Each structure stands twice: as C-alpha cells, then as structure tokens.
C-alpha cells in the first residue's frame, strides 16, 4: 500500500532541511518545564524505555536526554528509541548526537507512526514532538500502533512549538509563509484532533490533558528567515519563490511592529513562542 501524499511530501522535504543542517539551526528547543512534566510520569528508578516518533534531527531528544540526566530524574530512563522516516533527518540526528545521554542507550531507527520497530507493550513512554499533525484527518492506524507498543499505564505525550501570533510582527510573518501550506496538515489546523472521536483512541487511552507554556527566545533577522525556510512547504518552493519570500520576511522584521530588542547593536531581539503539551495514558 502506498503512503499518503502528505507523508511522502514531509519525508522528501524534511530530508533536505535535515541533512543540510537548516532544520536544526533554525528550530527552537523545548521548555525544560514541559520536558520535566513528561518525565514526571515515569517512576524514579524505573529504567524506562522511551520511544520518540518523528524524532527529526533530535532537537527534542537532546533536551530530553539532558533533563533525564538531572538528579531529580536519575534512573527514570534506560533506553530511548528514536524513530524517524526521513533519511536526511536521521543523518542530522546522528550528526548531532553526542555522549550527553550518559548511561541512556539511544537508538535511531527508520519507521512511521503506524510502523514502529519495537515490541508489543515494550514502551513506558511514547513522545512525539512537532510531528503528529502529519497524520492529517485519519490517525486511527497511528493510534492503534502507539497503543500496541505502550505498556498498560504508559504515557503518550504530544508536544508542539508554535510562533506566537499575539506579537504583531510574528503574525505578519506567519501570514507571509502560511499562504504556501499547500493543504499540508499543519498543527494549527487541528486535523489531528480527529483521533479523539475514534474507537481506536477511546478503547485504548484516557482523555487527554493539555498544558501550555510561553517564552521568548533570542533571534536575529537571518534566523527568522531560516525558521520560515525550515518548513517543509517552503523547502518545496522554487529558489525564486523562496528569495521573494525571504525579502518579504526581512521587510516585516525591519519594520518591527511590536518587536522587543535584546541587543540592538548585535541585531538580537525576542522571538515569542507558545508550546502545547498533550498527555494521555494507556488504559
């Protein structure tokens, strides 16, 4: 059976930004408070197995491993299996992985949300960062597969970073690049939430709980452009289209409606983000 068109689209275009280093350079990390909330679902000394789906270049992975090594989380994680379908992303993952995981065994495998290369009931935690929206309108097979690999009582965590539209210049930039989405199932559209109306979800998981975080990260004009260019649907544009978009983004940044400087001489200012965390438990 052939894979959905949007899955092939994501694999192809994220492979380009993953192998080039653009994705890892441009994308933000994740709030330590959110990662600690996920880790709080694991018992002390449990030596748990964690499966991360859609691991990309390991932006979430590295932050998770760092927090898992903190004294308050010692012994919670013994093994992390990163699953990523894009060859370029897996290349980026391995290029960035270092020894910061300490005693935690880390593996990086090819796979999909509905094709997870681990045994039944082997995971204490499944986490998906910045990726689950790619299931689109029908995530039933993914839900069924995630239920298969999770132990009873195990946790399923979904987490996303999103540029904060409450800041005027960020809203203006999002208007510039979101017009190129090409019907891809972006997180903001909420198509992925259709899983909650399925028997696959209701039979296997508890009702989800959501937490929300806000923060402002240092950035520059170049990094704002890179952030937009790291999106799959922007990678898919022609060079001329990207050049035009880049110039439009720079104009918005220079106008700077609502922009807050950190160091004007160095061109460093705040980039506001919201982070959404969704947690559910395997019945």
Summarize the structure.
This protein has helices spanning 5-20, 22-26, 32-39, 59-68, 87-96, 140-149, 168-178, 199-204, 221-229, 232-235, 239-255; strands at 48-53, 77-83, 105-109, 123-129, 150-163, 209-219, 261-263, 268-281. The protein starts with a helix and ends with a strand. The protein is of the alpha/beta class.
Helix count equals: 11
CATH architectural name: 3-Layer(aba) Sandwich
Largest sheet: 8 strands, mixed
Rg on CA atoms, Å: 19 Å
Number of separate structural domains: 1
CATH superfamily: Vaccinia Virus protein VP39
Taken in chain order, the helices and strands follow as: HHHEHEHEEHEHHEHHHEE
What is the distance, rounded to the nearest whole angstrom, between the alpha carbons of the first and last residues?
A: 30 Å
CATH class: Alpha Beta
What is the number of strand segments? 8
Average pLDDT rating: 92
CATH topology name: Rossmann fold
- What structural class is derived from the secondary structure elements? alpha/beta
Shape: globular
Low-confidence stretches at least 5 residues in length (pLDDT < 50)? none
Strand content: 15-25%
Helix fraction by DSSP (H/I, runs of at least 4): 25-40%
Q: How is this fold's topology laid out?
A:
Layout: H1 5-20, H2 22-26, H3 32-39, E1 48-53, H4 59-68, E2 77-83, H5 87-96, E3 105-109, E4 123-129, H6 140-149, E5 150-163, H7 168-178, H8 199-204, E6 209-219, H9 221-229, H10 232-235, H11 239-255, E7 261-263, E8 268-281
Parallel strand pairs: 1-2, 1-4, 2-3, 4-5
Antiparallel strand pairs: 5-8, 6-8, 7-8
Helix pairs in contact: 1-5, 3-4, 7-11, 9-11
């Amino acid at each position: 059976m052939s894979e959905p068109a949007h899955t092939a689209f994501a694999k192809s275009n994220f492979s380009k930004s993953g192998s080039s280093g653009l994705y890892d350079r441009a994308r933000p990390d994740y709030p330590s408070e959110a990662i600690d909330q996920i880790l709080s679902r694991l018992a002390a000394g449990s030596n748990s197995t964690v499966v991360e789906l859609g691991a990309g270049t390991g932006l979430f992975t590295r932050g998770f491993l760092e927090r898992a090594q903190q004294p308050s989380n010692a012994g919670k994680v013994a093994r992390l299996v990163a699953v990523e379908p894009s060859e370029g992303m897996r290349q980026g993952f391995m290029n960035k992985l270092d020894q910061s995981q300490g005693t935690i065994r880390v593996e990086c495998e090819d796979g999909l949300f509905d094709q997870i290369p681990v045994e039944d009931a082997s995971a204490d935690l499944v986490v998906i960062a910045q990726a689950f929206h790619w299931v689109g309108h029908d995530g039933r097979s993914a839900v069924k597969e995630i239920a298969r690999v999770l132990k009873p009582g195990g946790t399923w965590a979904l987490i996303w970073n999103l540029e904060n539209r409450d800041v005027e210049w960020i809203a203006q930039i999002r208007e510039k690049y979101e017009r190129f989405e090409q019907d891809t199932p972006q997180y903001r559209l909420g198509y992925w939430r259709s899983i909650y109306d399925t028997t696959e979800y209701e039979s296997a998981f508890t009702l989800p709980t959501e937490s929300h975080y806000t923060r402002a990260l240092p950035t520059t004009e170049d990094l704002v452009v890179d952030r937009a260019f790291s999106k799959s649907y922007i990678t898919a544009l022609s060079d001329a289209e990207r050049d035009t978009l880049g110039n439009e983004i720079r104009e918005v940044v220079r106008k700077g409606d609502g922009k807050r400087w950190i160091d004007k001489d160095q061109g460093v200012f705040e980039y506001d983000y919201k982070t959404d965390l969704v947690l559910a438990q395997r019945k």
